[in-house]
């Protein structure tokens, strides 16, 4: 099983860069097996739809605009995304998620199992650091991803643990 962990975000808008910071957090703190690819998708959006087509399972991490407090984490499945049950799009790279999946369907590409972890941002102001609630969210989302992967027989181990 080929797994893609895709972090989306803009690193110059503080919390908007959460997905990219998340991928870097996993690289730094976890041993990742060969069948798991950590991918910094930045703001590429639809331009990297092929990455989704190459995987059997995709875990996407980004910020969302929805009711709740900064640092609250939400989990969505492919059906939620395709039925537009995900919250309002926050940034240009999010324009591509539903469209990316539709494009893949039109091409008769395989449909990977897809999970989207969204976290509520505290600030989208210019800056390259996460706010405290989102900094704390890195390990919270990592725990969720580790458990999800464990449920399909894939183990991410903490380095030096």
Automatic annotation (TrEMBL):
Pfam family, one: HycI
Record's keyword terms, sorted: Aspartyl protease, Hydrolase, Protease
Signal peptide region: none
GO biological process, one term: protein processing
The keyword Transport appears for this protein: no
GO molecular function, one term: enzyme activator activity
InterPro entries reported for this sequence: Pept_HybD-like_dom_sf, Peptidase_A31
NCBIfam families the UniProt entry points to: hydrog_prot
Record-given protein name: Membrane protein
